[in-house]
Every structure is written in structure tokens, then in C-alpha cells.
Amino acid sequence: MIFTTAYIVLGTLLRAQALLNSNLNYQSSSRRQEYAILGIDIPLVERRAWRRNSEENAPDELNFTHSIASGDPWPESIILCTRIAPTGESDKSNVTVEGDVPLYNHVTKPYIDVDPHPICLEWSVFKTNNGTVATKSLEPFTECFDQFVVCNSENMSRLGKTETASREDDHLDKISLAVFPCSNYPKGYFNAYGNAVRRHNRDYVVHLGDYIYENADPTGERADKPPHAPFSLHDYRTRHNQYKTDPDLQLLSKD
Ligand SMILES: *[C@@H]1O[C@H](CO)[C@@H](O)[C@H](O)[C@H]1NC(C)=O
Ligand SMILES: *[C@@H]1O[C@H](CO)[C@@H](O)[C@H](O)[C@H]1NC(C)=O
Ligand SMILES: *[C@@H]1O[C@H](CO)[C@@H](O)[C@H](O)[C@H]1NC(C)=O
Ligand SMILES: *[C@@H]1O[C@H](CO)[C@@H](O)[C@H](O)[C@H]1NC(C)=O
């Protein structure tokens, strides 16, 4: 099935240009040394896409199924995330997810089939909440706004809000956190997520887990998907997708 998750690291911000450089799956977090292992070889990915004679999806068939999110703030960088795909469905991999497994590998694809349809996304970061003044670099402890757009199209994500971290030695009078634990989708609505946006100003959100539950509650309008305890990679992705479509969770993630 067709999907691309874009984890994009913004160091010095420039409008994304190259096709695959704007789709850095599992790019190392904030380019920090300790996560270098999560980085991928972009030239290799480009060569592979070229070999497959890939065909792009039409922009109007693509949907930001999980809206957008941002996190892992550092003084001059932040990670922006989105999922862009025709549907919320993922690869039907039945690989079991249990015990220690090697990291997801783009070359040997032990867990999922690599999709032959590359998706080109651009992103921008703005100083204003109407998306008019683009910024090229980030300042510490500063709010900014972000948006993804499917290349060469009008199909764009919602405008997100994000905030860089302070420098280690900065003096701050006040920092506000919204803290959440234990979010169980079938047990009720996620209005607490939405209320953190609608009613309060906060700098950051901290989720202590559980972010999803592995139980199976197959009844009611928020019945768990799949309707059994997740077991395979596809099961987990289906469950994760279900949570991620919640409007209040999407509101909190983008804000
Ligand atoms: C963006 O994609 C969605 C989902 O496929 C579609 O409904 C919408 O019309 C598209 N918007 C534009 C401006 O192409
Ligand atoms: C896009 O995804 C959202 C889930 O976030 C869904 O509610 C909506 O119906 C989808 N739109 C299209 C056109 O597929
Ligand atoms: C996954 O699918 C393959 C091929 O259909 C099958 O051989 C294998 O037993 C399945 N594994 C699991 C864990 O269901
Ligand atoms: C966008 O916001 C800025 C700053 O708040 C304001 O000066 C500008 O007029 C706004 N532009 C539009 C098109 O609304």
C-alpha cells in the first residue's frame, strides 16, 4: 500500500527543493550524533527510486491522513512530521512485532514492501500565523508556524504551530507544559487533548504514555481497530492510524 511518512529535520531552514530530500524517512533526529544510526543514505534512495521508474501519485489523491505534528525541540531545530498518502491503510506486512528487532532498513525491507510511488513534499516555516512571512533560521524558545505542501500543487496541510527549546543556560521566568498519560481511544473522547489547545496556552506537550493501548474493545462507535489485540506490524499501524485520525489529537499535534 502507498504511504510516506516524512520526518523532516529543520536545522538551517530553507524551502525544501529536491524530490527525495524532502522525504527523509527516519532521518536522524535533529541531526544529533546519538541518533546518527537512524539516518539514511539519500543518494541510495534516489538511485533506487530512479531504478524503479517510479510514478508519482496525483496531488489531489493525496491526503495528510494524520494531519501534522512537531516535536523534539532544540534551540535551533525542530522535527516536523506528517503522513501523506491516499488512505490511512498501510502495507499489509504480517511481520510480528515482538522482542528485539533490528532497526527498520530501507535497503533490505525486512518488514514492509517499499512503495514504488514517491511523494514529493515541500515544507515552509513562517514567523506569522497566516503563513505569510517565511523564516530561514530558527531562534531559541521562539514560536513559529509550519506547513507542508504537495510539490507543484495546491494541496497543503493545515498550518501547524511549534516552538524551539531554550538554550541550556538561558534564564526563563516561566515555561508551561501540558502533560498527558493513558489515552485509551474506545474509552471516551480525546477532548482533553483539544481543550489544551482551546483553553490554555502552553509551550510544550509531554505525553507520558500510554499513547495507544493494545487491548481489544470491539464495541461502540470508537471500537478498536483492528478488533483484536494487535500482533503484526500491520495491526499496530492500523491501531496507530485510528488514534491519529482523532480530531482532538490532530489539533493538539499540529498546535
Ligand atoms: C487534496 O487532497 C484531498 C484528498 O485526496 C482532496 O480531497 C483535495 O481535493 C485535494 N486538494 C487540492 C487543493 O488538490
Ligand atoms: C483524509 O484523512 C482524514 C483522516 O485524517 C479523513 O477524515 C478524510 O476523510 C480523508 N479525506 C479523503 C478525501 O480521503
Ligand atoms: C505471513 O504471511 C506469510 C505468507 O502469506 C506466511 O507464510 C506467514 O506464516 C505469515 N506469518 C504470520 C506471522 O502470520
Ligand atoms: C499576517 O500576519 C501579520 C502579522 O500578524 C500581519 O502583519 C499581516 O497583515 C497578515 N497578513 C495577512 C494576509 O493576513
From TrEMBL:
Residue ranges annotated for the PhoD-like phosphatase metallophosphatase domain, each copy included = 177-252
Q: Does the keyword Transcription apply?
A: no
- Answer whether the UniProt record assigns the keyword DNA repair to this protein: no
Q: Basic and acidic residues: which segments have biased composition?
A: 234-255
**TM region(s), chain numbering:** none
Which controlled-vocabulary keywords does the entry list? Signal
Organism, per UniProt? Clonostachys chloroleuca
Renumbered residue ranges of the record's region Disordered: 217-255
Name this polypeptide is given: PhoD-like phosphatase metallophosphatase domain-containing protein
Query: Secretion signal: which residues?
Result: 1-18
Q: Which domain of life is it from?
A: Eukaryota
